[in-house]
């Protein structure tokens, strides 16, 4: 079948074996390129490297075992390109055609992305709203601090007292630096702690933090709220640190 009138303009005849092997090589390159285009591009450089690797492997096998080019005799000028040049041009063509207009998918983090005290820069630290926002932002782990109240309840708080930068007393007056450490959570019951606001004043060091009336939560309540929020949004459960 290959031995039909394989002649160029000058009437030069190609051997059937040479044509056959050249066609096999081109078909292999086309198959590799088509396979590379089936899936969305994850990493063009890695995929391009893989294409070249397989082309090299196939070219070496075919060229070494069957010898594509020596069997073609009296080729016209364009057909006299060395085999390596043809291979390189084909490889470049595969790289170019493997590019698509599809959007690159968001990479998965290969590290533990933690929300420090929730989303401290945007909402009051170590509070349930801050934890829920961190979950929405896609953290793997919600980081928070824990202290123990006088009635032995685990409470989310960085300091074992009420810091003067963020705390408001039950009467609405701000906690001062002089009295901050005297408001010792270890000596207060959980009910007493929940009377102090820790968000309505905002935070002087975080200008983008939204002021919010909120209290220091019990750890069990914070985790339960985070779990329920993730489930409601269809988000994978987060870890806790």
Write the layout of secondary structure elements.
Blueprint: H1 16-36, H2 44-66, H3 83-97, E1 114-116, H4 128-136, E2 141-143, E3 146-148, E4 154-156, H5 177-180, H6 190-193, H7 219-233, E5 239-240
Parallel strand pairs: 1-2, 2-5
Antiparallel strand pairs: 3-4
Tell me what you see in this structure.
This protein has 241 residues and is mainly alpha-helical. 38% of the residues lie in helices and 6% in strands. It is built from 7 helices and 5 strands; from the N terminus they run H-H-H-E-H-E-E-E-H-H-H-E. The strands form 2 sheets. Strands 1-2-5 form a 3-stranded parallel β-sheet, covered by helices on one side. It has a two-stranded antiparallel sheet with strand order 3-4. Helix 1 packs antiparallel against helix 2, helix 1 packs parallel to helix 3 and helix 4 runs parallel beside helix 7. It is elongated and about 90 Å long.
């Amino acid at each position: 079948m290959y031995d039909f009138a394989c002649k160029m303009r000058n009437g030069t005849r190609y051997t059937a074996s040479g044509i056959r092997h050249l066609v096999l090589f081109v078909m292999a390159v086309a198959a590799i390129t088509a396979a590379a285009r089936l899936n969305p591009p994850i990493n063009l450089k890695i995929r391009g490297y893989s294409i070249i690797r397989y082309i090299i492997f196939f070219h070496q096998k075919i060229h070494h075992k069957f010898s594509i080019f020596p069997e073609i005799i009296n080729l016209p000028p364009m057909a006299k390109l060395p085999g390596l040049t043809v291979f390189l041009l084909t490889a470049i063509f595969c790289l170019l055609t493997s590019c698509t207009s599809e959007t690159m998918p968001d990479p998965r983090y290969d590290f533990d992305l933690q929300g420090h005290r929730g989303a401290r820069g945007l909402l009051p630290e170590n509070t349930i709203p801050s934890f829920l926002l961190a979950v929405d932002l896609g953290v793997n782990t919600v980081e928070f601090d824990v202290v123990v109240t006088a009635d032995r309840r685990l409470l989310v708080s960085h300091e074992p007292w009420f810091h003067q930068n963020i705390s408001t007393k039950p009467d609405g007056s701000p906690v001062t630096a002089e009295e901050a450490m005297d408001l010792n959570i270890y000596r207060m019951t959980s009910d007493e702690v929940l009377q102090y606001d820790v968000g309505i004043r905002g935070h002087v060091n975080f200008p983008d933090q939204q002021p919010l009336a909120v209290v220091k939560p019990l750890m069990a309540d914070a985790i339960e709220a985070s779990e329920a929020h993730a489930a409601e949004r269809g988000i994978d459960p987060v870890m806790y640190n």
